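okkk here we go again. third time trying to get the adenosine-5'-diphosphate bound version out, last two times i messed up the smiles copy paste (missing a bracket lol). double checked this time i swear
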Amino acid sequence: MSGNIFEHMLGNDSLFKNREVLHHGFTPKKLPHREREIISLANNLVEALNGHIPSNMLLYGQPGAGKTAVTRFVCQQLLRRGAELGVKVNAIEVNCCVVDTKYRVLANIGNELAPRNQTPIPFTGWPSDKVLERLRENMDKQGGVHVIVLDEIDHLVRKNGDGVLYPLTSLNYELRNSRCCVIGITNDLKFTDLLDARVTSRLGSEDLVFKPYVAAQIEDILSERAIAGVREGVLGEGVIKLCAALAAQEHGDARRALDLLRIAVQKAEQNGAQKTDVSHVRLAQNQLEFDQITPVIEALPIHQKFVLYAILLNEMNGLKNVSAGEAYAVYQMVCEKAKINSLVSRSITSVIKNLDSLGLISARTISLGRYGRSNRINSCVPETVDPIAIMEKADPMMVDVVNASYRLQDRL
Ligand SMILES: Nc1ncnc2c1ncn2[C@@H]1O[C@H](COP(=O)(O)OP(=O)(O)O)[C@@H](O)[C@H]1O
Ligand SMILES: [Mg+2]
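finally!!
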């Protein structure tokens, strides 16, 4: 190959115009189908430009419903308008999945607001009162209204309780030269169940619920992003429609839709195709399913792997809709092959429940009239994923179990 190898790889024959635009971290300039939510949030935050304190708010909705994107968009516009009007407003976003303790949240906000020459609040070590005092000091030094966005707020509260929300929702009593409000964002519709009534009433004075997108809305969103992200003529017939339909099945998740589209174009590119077609979307879907489910299967504790294997073994033997008892009988054989004591049959119920909630199996309880109730258990790992291979790779103990031979019963 002549010339620099990277020059060849970076050639401008890419199907993407700008891959970044199709990444879910990118905040687009337009957010179709979120006009109502944008207006509601803006109606509240405009108070900051009028010199008043906006209400605290809670934003709810399924993952991929546009909560983070809408909040960033409105905050960006707020800051821009504030600068034009010469009104001091500030927005600080904290992702509570990453910054997930009371200390770190307060330190993070305090440091965001720090004047340039100030020594930052250390990562750990200060008493929390001192951190809070520094935070207030810095807010007052800047002046104006501070909008604190706590994204994925349920993570923080689940991990630490609602203690951190007390100081944050009572800052206005102590601040002298500035004001603040808190915008909490969560995927958990029952979030306020985690809170003390006093915190709920302070935090949840206004709620905004983001409904999941329907397929047609996701199509609009994708089309808009594709204009800036993908070269003209690259998306074949039905590509956007299929991405949107698949994502609509996943609780209307716009993030999923963008991932599908981006990976589909990437697959086309890797295959040397000039156009992306629906087969590339299918490949992308398989890839996403695989990436999503593999770590879940890998991380199963060994007995859960055994139970899953027992259910799969029954199915390979032509036995579907098994009862918990039938699964248990095979699971016992599996334990025998692994030379491990089996769990008592009672524990299997909770294992089955767990596998069901992880989406690896579906366990339906049916009533047998006067004969009581029974489970009907089936695996529901997507066909493109090989759970046995994943378990074997993750756990050496599974290798013996998989290679052993079993005398399985057919249903009578
Ligand atoms: N109405 C929309 N228009 C354009 N892109 C959107 C829209 N809603 C969501 N997105 C995009 O979908 C992805 C997921 O949205 P996000 O705001 O992160 O969802 P959430 O925070 O509700 O989980 C992001 O890349 C975002 O830019
Ligand atoms: Mg989000």
